[in-house]
Structures are given as C-alpha cells and as structure tokens.
Fold this protein.
Amino acid sequence: MLNQKLTLNMKKLILIIAICLFAAGCEKYDSGPANQNTIGKMLTGSETILKNNLDKAAIILADVIQDEAVMNELTLLSQETREFYSLSFSDLLDESKGVSGSFKNLRDGFLSGCSASESKGGWGELADYLAKNDCYIYCPYPASFYPKGTSSFTVAAHPIDNDEENTGYRFEGKKMKEVKVNEKYADKFMVLLIMPKDEDNGLKGIPVEEFPGSKGDTVYDVKIGKVR
C-alpha cells in the first residue's frame, strides 16, 4: 500500500512539473500581440537583400527630401494634376532620360547620400542595385488628399516580409524619427514608398488618369502596394 501511495504521489509530482514547464515555455515564447517580426514570412537570400536595400533607400530619401529644392521637384508626383505617380530609379539615375532632368536635385542628393553611407557603413552600389532591379519611388496619394498645409513626407519601403506594415522615416525638426507605416498611418500623413519591381499588380506605368484613387480616393492599399 505504501508503495502504491509513493507511486501515485510520484505521478502527481511529475504531472505538476510537466504543467509548470509547459506554462514557463508559453510565457517565454508568447511575446504579446503580433508585430512585424512575428507575422513576417521567411525570406530567401535575395529577398533579404532586397528588403535591406529598399530600407536603406528609404532612410536616404527621407534625409534628401529635407532639401526645399527636392520637395519642389516632388510636386510632380504629389500634385493634384500629376501626370505620373511613380519614378523609377533607372530613369532617375540615367541623365540621358528626359524625366531625370526634372529631378536633378533629387538625383544628386540621393547619389550623395549613397556615397556618404558607403563611406560610413558599406552601403556600396545601392543606387546601381535599385536601378538594375527596377525599384522605384511611389506616391500613393496626392497632397490634396490630406489637410491643407500638409507638406512633409514620411518615407517607407515596401515591407517584403509581411502584408501589414513597415518602418517609415520622417523628420521632426532636425531629428529623424522612426514610425510604423500602414494604411491607417497613410490616411493621415503623406507617404512616399520605395517599391520593388512590379510582378503582378500592374501599377507601374499606368497613366495616372486611369489609376483609381489618383484624385485622393482611398483605394490604394499602402500596406503592400495593391489596389483594393
């Protein structure tokens, strides 16, 4: 009888230990509400490089557009009567292209930003990568979509690894601030997106008059670059 009681107590002890270990494991790996890191898909090597380079470009562009001359050029992408809403890096960087002349300050500033970043942290050949891989700058909503007086942009890259949000960069005074950019954010603040090559959404190259939302209709899903 004593042996049976000992065996029963031992089983109870093992069960209690197992429950405690399970609970401890849940507490360790449950990080609360899902965020970009937990919902992101696993990326291939080339996708990781793409994501990193798009984000680097967003940081540089956020800095470059603090120049008033650059902001004046960007009205071509953001004004109500804009003729186009995207600018490829290949066109921006190719001085033989007519469109490049309209964004001279943007081009010079971006290339200077790439050179400065390369000397500091090895962001070499970023501009060349963006051009060769058909990446581009995209302005989803015209300035008229926002309250009068809104003039500054937040710059964010396509997230690549998720369908929800990505880190964006904007200046408050002389300090760059990181923010989470998703569709709710883009409804309130002007956004420029650094986009990867179009595969199947067919946005790039569509005349602006044929693009739904070009006059401020809320049909562009800023999260992943698709029309909804």
